[in-house]
Amino acid sequence: MLSDKVILLAGATGMAAAAAEAFVAAGARVFITARTEASCADLARRLDELAGAPVAAWHTADLQDETAVEGVVAAAVERFGRLDGCFHTAGGSGRRFGDGPLHEVSLAAWDATFRLNLTTEFLVTREVLKALLRNEPGPGGRGSIVLTSSILGFHPAPANFATHAYAAAKAAVAGLVATTAAYYAPSGIRINAIAPSLVDTPMSARAQGDEAINTYATARQPLTGPFLQAADVAGMATLLLSDQGRAITGQVLKIDGGWSVSDAGGWPGPPLPDDAAPR
Question: Which residues belong to the active site?
Fold first, then answer.
């Protein structure tokens, strides 16, 4: 699906790592960027081993820094000669900055949460667009960008996840996707986002250790249990970056195990026929 494509990956653990493995398995080369050198180097080593050839490179950067992002994209193009797409998963909870119920959020906490979860997506998208616009159109256009939103930006869970700056930043990704997708579609560039619910990643460690959240999430995500696996997200990212996704742009696709259509426990599901019992 991604044969000979070069994908910039913003992030090196969790969903990013699972996606990188899926990209390489689909034939891509991957340029990794994250803040932690050890994470980047370890993921690149694993990707090379998976492919049996040198298919990965990396460059550490703080993606909140404009100059650093410019340097990452330049390094990726220098290493592989071009870019065909980008999957941006970098971001995280704003709790450490003071994110929470809005009446308790300081301006500093709001700004820091937005810089981590929205400004990074803006800076990376802007620089990747410059690279994609230089490409000659192919069967799937000039390239594809996939950003990361969150189910909490659209379907809140106030009792368990009252992090209002984070939710607002992730909801804003939808506006960024819609307006840029419309503008760049005539140039053959597609821009979409994935909005996951709770995923088994390092970011969700606090939630994974909370019995009440596990009970809630098991009901809210009935298809997957309390946590999605990172591979559940990787498959959609692969499709959106491939030529098979050439007709998809401007979308925020919810990968949520049923979160957006469930009421967290009020409906046990229809009775199963007698012959549906496990054998």
Answer: 166
Sign of CA dihedral 182, 188, 189, 193: positive
pLDDT tens for each residue of 65-119: 999 999 999 999 999 999 999 999 999 999 999 999 999 999 999 999 999 999 9
Calculate helix-pair angle for 120-133, 66-80, nearest 10 degrees: 40
Of 158, 45, 43, the closest CA to residue 89 belongs to 43
Q: What tens digit of pLDDT does each residue of 221-242 get?
A: 999 988 899 999 999 999 999 9
**What span, in angstroms and rounded, lies between the C-alpha atoms of 37 and 41?**
6
**Domain locations along the chain:** 6-258
Please tell me whether residue 126 adopts helix, strand or coil conformation: helix
Q: How far apart, in Å, are the Cα atoms of 134 and each of 137, 141, 154?
A: 9, 12, 35
CATH 3.90.850.10 fits 6-258, yes or no: no
Q: CA Rg, the chain, in Å?
A: 19
- pTM equals 0.93
